[in-house]
Structure formats: structure tokens, C-alpha cells
Amino acid sequence: METREVIAARRSIRRFEDRPVPEEVVNSVLTAAIQAPSGKNRQPWRFVVVAGEEKRAAMIRCMRSGIEQAREQHIETGSALWTTRIMRKAPVTIFVFNPMGMHPWAAHSTYEMYLSTVDVQSIGAAIQNMLLAAQDAGLGSLWICDVFSAYEQLAEWLGEPGQLMAAVALGYPAEHPEARPRRPLSDVVRWY
């Protein structure tokens, strides 16, 4: 597919076929991720791939435990429990970490805040590349931020140093949703 066609065809997929994704296909998606632009060429990303029945089950137990603990503390978890069902059915979940991660509000200087923001933008570009490469490979994908509802539990279980940024579920799509509406350019662009 041409780039613009891949962009237009990409959808958030929440239902996956029950078939594995070959390792070489996952690696091609990850290769696209690391080809993303990164401020100062810091390449602030690390990826942890969770695949296979046993690992997926452990991942879901960990996430549900974190959600339960958050709810006990009266912390809103939104759609996180529903997201665990999606992740359970996805053959692959890729967790994205920033090994240099620091929350922008924890920065001690303007320069540290700048670097933190640049890293977050770079990681966003890497995730977008993953989503587009997955689409081009015939996979469905879902960018997941609900992992924050079980942040500490997942970060500890995965054992990856740095800041957990997001997860991406991958698999062969079992649904083909229509495009969601987008605001027209006239609503979001101002020429100066």
C-alpha cells in the first residue's frame, strides 16, 4: 500500500483472530518503530513483547490486580477492565518504555523538561510507525494507555527499567470498523 492509503485504512482494532503472529512480522513492526524520528537522536524507546498463552494470562492477572488495587483506593480506572479483555485476545502485546523516562513535572530544570517532552514525542512517533507498519502487514493494532491503571504492577512484572509509556496490541483483525469521524481542516487549522 501507499503511505496515504495505509494512514487512511488504519483503525483501532479490538477483536482479533485466534492465530499467532509470526515473530518476523512482529520484528518488522518493531523495525518500523525504531526508524521513527527522535529528538537529538536519543532513540528513547525499549520494547517488551508479550506473546504466548501463558505470558498473556500472567499479563492479564497482573493488570487486573493493579486495576483492583486502584479501585480499592477509589482511583478511576475508566475502560481499563474492558481493555484487559482485548489484550487477552490479542496474540501479541508490545509494551513501550522510555529508559530515560522522567515525568515532565519531576524535571529539575527547563532543559530536563524539554528533553522529557522531546522523548515523549519521539516515542509517540515510534508507536505511530508501529501502527502503520502493522496495518501494512495486514495486522490490526490498538494503542493502549489503560496500562496506567496498573502501572506499578505491570512495570514490576515486566522488569524493564524506565517509564512505561503505553502498550500496543497486535493480531490479525477479526473486525473491520468504519472510519471514525474527524473534524474538518477548517476546524483545526489556522493559517497565519
Structure, explained:
The chain is α+β, with helices and mostly antiparallel strands. The protein has a single domain (12-174), classed as NADH Oxidase (3-Layer(aba) Sandwich), CATH 3.40.109. Helix content is 46%, strand content 14%. It contains 7 helices and 4 strands. The chain has a 4-stranded antiparallel sheet, with helices on both faces. Helix 2 runs antiparallel to helix 5 (110-136). It starts with a helix and ends with a helix.
The CATH architecture assignment turns out to be: 3-Layer(aba) Sandwich
- Approximately how much beta-strand content do the residues carry? 5-15%
Number of domains: 1
The beta-strand count equals 4
The spatial strand order of the largest sheet comes to 1-2-4-3
Radius of gyration: 17 Å
Cα-to-Cα separation, first versus last residue: 34 Å
Would you state the CATH class?
Alpha Beta
Structure described in brief:
The protein contains seven helices and four strands.
